[in-house]
Amino acid sequence: MVETPPSSLPFWAPACHAARRDALVRRARLKSALRTWFDTRDFLEVETGIVQVSPGNETHLHAFSTEWTAFGEKQMHAYLHTSPEFAMKKLLAAGEKRIYQFAPVFRARESSPLHAGEFSMLEWYRAGEDYTALMADCADILRLAADVGGRGTFTFRGCECDPFAEPERLSLNEAFERYAGIDLALEIIRWDAASLETGPDGDFLARSFHEAASRTGVRTAPDDSWTDIYSRILCEKIEPNLGIGRPTILDRYPVSEAALARPCPDDPRVAERFELYVCGVELANAFGELTDPAEQRRRFEADMAEKQRLYGESYPLDEDFLNALAYMPPASGIALGFDRLAMLATGAERVEDVIFTPGPFGEPLK
């Protein structure tokens, strides 16, 4: 259990560091154990560049920008990556089969007990393997983290989870039905129809998800998009119930909510995407990877148009990444928040308690 550091002290104050040191040591041991876990399974540890021409093209991810001075003093606008995903997929296109990386990543507008502007992501890929292999990886890694942390149970905000239990695999449709009383599959059909309809019929169909959300007690606004409502229901009604008692694998997301995942072969309306939850905390996000450059471009452009509408900004596309997709083999990949895993493994209350040098713009440790 992490001791409560003295309030309003910088992380380098001896008393503050002493209160956090046990958790930091366990974090280091966990990283070492994970490296061994990957190495014994024929994964190659890689290191990719942090500065990229595009930080990622998901609507609600916000990046840090910078200026890059190239040869000949040419100035270019660049970004700190929000994930090493694009670069690691280029390595798959180059011929690598199993790769992993502990990467520092950067996301603006994120600060909470579960978020930091700079944090560590553990990302790994399996070329030629189905995304269900990643589900087995997640179960193994949770058990490993519990062993290293010396914890028989993970706890967070009054919730408990047995990290040694077999994870429950739950589809989004099952989760919406169970925890919100909403038939998500029907709402997807209605929303698709609404996008093709005009006039009163189209307006009626477009309102259906608003009405379903209101019945669950989730507030909506008239100008909310389908995605806005979906995200609010997921956050308020679904996520707090996941990973309680045992881990949850939340699977088969709507294609519109899985920008880099391929459609499921049995139902192209949903995608091969899952997220791992423990104690209501999202730990990992996984895809059966999309390798169609034209479809990926279409999704990126749609997401950047929505980002421009919502935030008044958008990011360029990485044309080199789109070119590489044509050479990338079928693969599965996953990004896991390493700080969150360390937090659960040590009993910390927030991710900054397990980050050696918390970012310069956060609140003092309390």
Describe this entry's structure for a reader.
The protein has 366 residues and is an alpha+beta fold. It has two domains: 14-167 and 246-354, 2-Layer Sandwich (BirA Bifunctional Protein, domain 2); 174-243, no CATH class. Helices cover 38% and strands 22% of the residues. It has helices spanning 14-39, 85-94, 132-149, 172-180, 184-194, 199-215, 226-238, 293-311, 319-325, 338-346, and strands at residues 44-45, 51-52, 65-69, 75-80, 98-106, 118-127, 154-156, 159-161, 168-171, 248-254, 263-264, 267-278, 281-288, 331-337. The strands form three sheets. Strands 1, 5, 6, 9, 10, 11, 12, 13 and 14 form a nine-stranded mixed beta sheet that branches. Strands 2-4-3 form a three-stranded antiparallel beta sheet, with no helix packed on it. Helix 1 crosses helix 10, helix 4 packs across helix 7 (226-238) and helix 5 (184-194) runs antiparallel to helix 6 (199-215).
Give the topology, please:
Elements: H1 14-39, E1 44-45, E2 51-52, E3 65-69, E4 75-80, H2 85-94, E5 98-106, E6 118-127, H3 132-149, E7 154-156, E8 159-161, E9 168-171, H4 172-180, H5 184-194, H6 199-215, H7 226-238, E10 248-254, E11 263-264, E12 267-278, E13 281-288, H8 293-311, H9 319-325, E14 331-337, H10 338-346
Discrete helix count: 10
Give a quick account of the main beta sheet: strands, pairing sense, barrel closure.
9 strands, mixed
The CATH class assignment of the largest domain is Alpha Beta
Beta-strand percentage range = 15-25%
CATH architecture grouping of the largest domain: 2-Layer Sandwich
Give the name of the CATH superfamily of the largest domain.
Bira Bifunctional Protein, Domain 2
- How many structural domains are formed by the residues? 2
Which residues sit in consecutive blocks of at least 5 with pLDDT less than 50? 196-205
